[in-house]
């Protein structure tokens, strides 16, 4: 099982550019809408300030340089923290206020008049960034389902009707898991901690049960499939897959930069989640194929 599980992971890597591409496409689509909107908002802000201070001397280079410097000053080695700063209204207000002070020599008396224009600009910027994140999320979700269909054809192909059966089994297993956890907690509060520790093993057994019902029912004996040993093997191979993806992500982040590492990591962990979700099915189908003709294992 461990060998085949890792083999499934390596085979799935040929689909790496599917989740990577849909994520990149989502970000590009978001940026293509957000950048013009943000640029227009900043331009409108500058025009409004110009109208307010018609007789003042304006230094647009100072405004632009101040904005660029503030963005560059963020720690882009930690993109998540930098993004949180940009989405923080206080940071935006402080940054643009400083930029306007650089634009207008005598700014303080004009604070109240410029405040409305500044709020409108900041609202547009935050909205644009949120839009980019939304499109990125859509790209991740779309990439997951497209990649999942491609990987399934490669390592765990199944008839379409089994999709509905799998959904039913998933629901029953989750309900049984929740009911057992609740009951044990009521009987003995300490069992919650024990149950949590055993959860990975129980989830592995649940995966084997589902895979057996989908692909092995009346084809191979259940006692050969649903065992604690197989659950441990499934747990181990899935942990190895996650570890390999994590190590490769760190290597890319260190060798290139963290932003590239985030893109690569998201794609790899999507692939990992897909393969992990199918490893039990692939194992059962492999066991069934040893006893039955290929046309009877679908």
Which SSEs are present, and which pair or pack?
Blueprint: H1 2-12, H2 17-52, H3 60-72, H4 79-87, H5 89-103, H6 111-155, H7 161-187, H8 191-216, H9 222-225, H10 228-255, H11 258-289
Description of the molecule:
The chain is mostly helical. 83% of the residues lie in helices and 0% in strands. It has helices at 2-12, 17-52, 60-72, 79-87, 89-103, 111-155, 161-187, 191-216, 222-225, 228-255, 258-289. Helix 2 (17-52) runs antiparallel to helix 6 (111-155) and helix 10 packs antiparallel against helix 11. The longest helix has 45 residues, at 111-155. 27% of the residues are buried. The mean pLDDT is 79.
In short:
The protein has helices spanning 2-12, 17-52, 60-72, 79-87, 89-103, 111-155, 161-187, 191-216, 222-225, 228-255, 258-289. With 298 residues, the protein is mainly α. Helix 1 (2-12) packs across helix 11 (258-289) and helix 3 (60-72) packs antiparallel against helix 5 (89-103).
The structure class reads mainly alpha
Largest sheet composition? none
N- to C-terminal distance: 19 Å
The pLDDT mean sits at 79
Indicate the proportion of strand residues.
Answer: under 5%
Radius of gyration: 27 Å
Number of separate helices: 11
Topology pattern, helix = H, strand = E: HHHHHHHHHHH
| Helix coverage percent | over 70%
What are the low-pLDDT stretches, counting only 5+ consecutive residues below 50? Answer: none
Count of extended strands: 0
């Amino acid at each position: 099982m461990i060998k085949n599980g890792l083999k499934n992971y390596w085979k799935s890597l040929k689909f790496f550019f599917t989740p990577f591409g849909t994520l990149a496409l989502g970000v590009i689509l978001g940026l293509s809408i957000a950048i013009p909107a943000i640029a227009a908002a900043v331009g409108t802000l500058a025009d409004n300030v110009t109208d307010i201070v018609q007789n003042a001397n304006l230094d647009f280079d100072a405004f632009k340089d101040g904005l660029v410097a503030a963005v560059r000053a963020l720690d882009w080695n930690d993109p998540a923290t930098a993004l949180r700063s940009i989405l923080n209204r206080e940071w935006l207000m402080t940054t643009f206020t400083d930029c306007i002070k650089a634009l207008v020599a005598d700014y303080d008396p004009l604070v109240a008049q410029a405040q409305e224009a500044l709020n409108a600009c900041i609202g547009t910027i935050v909205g644009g960034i949120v839009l980019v994140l939304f499109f990125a999320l859509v790209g991740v979700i779309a990439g997951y389902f497209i990649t999942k269909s491609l990987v399934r054809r490669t390592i765990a192909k199944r008839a379409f009707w089994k999709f509905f059966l799998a959904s039913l089994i998933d629901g029953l297993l989750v309900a049984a898991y929740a009911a057992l956890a609740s009951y044990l907690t009521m009987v003995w509060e300490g069992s919650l901690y024990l149950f949590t520790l055993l959860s990975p093993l129980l989830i592995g057994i649940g995966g084997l049960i589902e895979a057996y019902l989908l692909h092995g029912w009346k084809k191979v004996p259940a006692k050969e499939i649903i065992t604690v040993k197989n659950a441990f093997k499934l747990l181990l191979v899935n942990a190895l897959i996650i570890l390999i993806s994590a190590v490769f992500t760190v290597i890319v982040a260190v060798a290139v930069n963290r932003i590239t590492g985030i893109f690569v990591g998201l794609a790899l962990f999507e692939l990992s989640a897909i393969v992990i979700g199918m490893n039990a099915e692939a194992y059962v189908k492999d066991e069934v194929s040893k006893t039955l003709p290929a046309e009877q294992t679908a």
